[in-house]
């Protein structure tokens, strides 16, 4: 990223420069890219007195081979709204997730009626500290990190999504270590010549608030944050010095609202990228037709493109109650100092790294299994109660997709359409994709037996749970087990 400068990312003849363009005051010269023009016009509507904001700009543009997808991040000083108890803050706006140019250099142009590029830009509101005369630049790099995730995975963000970051957003000792996403309270959707652009605001949250969003849903936690001025207030302004969660600020009311929301609504989180694996205990592990691969010659069978599409379509239509794509947590691997959930890829979150079919799809059969062994690392295992209480007890599904291989594990409840696991055959596998059907009675029993997963500080690994009459075993294992390529 290049240094900060006034209007640094704009063309020399950009808006407000008055540099011989012959344009009337407030108009835009013809050389100004139309997509950029539209977003900048919305910024000018909010900040007419800041025509040349400070900007952070990519040294080498993404379309020229640079690593940063955002061409620019503009930084504005917002005076807040004392009447609404909104403090003064810095307002950051990205340029680059939408189509700025319309010439296919970054995004494919698909018409004016649909989304422009990925259809959104990111914003962020950071509380201004007393005596602070210039905005900190670290939010710009944070936004670049999220943009890299979007470009590499092609997962778009939606209001209510959460991002597991597992690190203070500003690399300090702050408790604000994760993010929720919501509509920006001031910026309106923009119609550009290349499609529509909406504005999604990043909201920094504590670990306890992230977990509550996972157990319930992001929108519910965002509404709670709006009611607590110290935790964001109506415009959801991030204060990196906030030392208390909403549950500590208002212990009884907030937790009661979350518990009631989980009981009433269940969880909107339908899947995560995770460290997980499974074994078919129905046959010896040395069997050539191991549960994780079918060998033809020396080539292991992996998820084919058709397998991958079936998983996506089943989750999107047959199994997905909420019909909204869900962002996998961004964690585990670090790249350029930022957490990403995988190595660079332009593929969908459920698409295998080796999705090119090694053997024809027709040779892969769905198998009923008698007994299975599920393996999770501690972070993934801690989400099992969420899966059971927040999803299956509400007639929904939950999927773990391995970040270290082709494995996928989907838990489904009875009556779910599109599942190949049934009450008669509750364990079924299609290649490396395992489905497990659990009855409500068994889910309630599992929740009792897995209660200690809610207390990770008292947890010692490895930990094993077993239900012999159901022929099901679950192990919680150290991360190193899953990092071993021979696992």
From TrEMBL:
Keywords: Acetylation, Cytoplasm, Developmental protein, Isopeptide bond, Nucleus, Phosphoprotein, Ubl conjugation. GO terms for cellular component: cilium; cytosol; nucleus. Residues 66-242 form the Suppressor of fused-like domain. Residues 256-476 form the Suppressor of fused C-terminal domain. Residues 1-23 have a biased composition (Gly residues). Belongs to the SUFU family. PANTHER family: SUPPRESSOR OF FUSED, SUPPRESSOR OF FUSED HOMOLOG. This is Suppressor of fused homolog. It comes from Pomatorhinus ruficollis (streak-breasted scimitar babbler). The gene is Sufu.
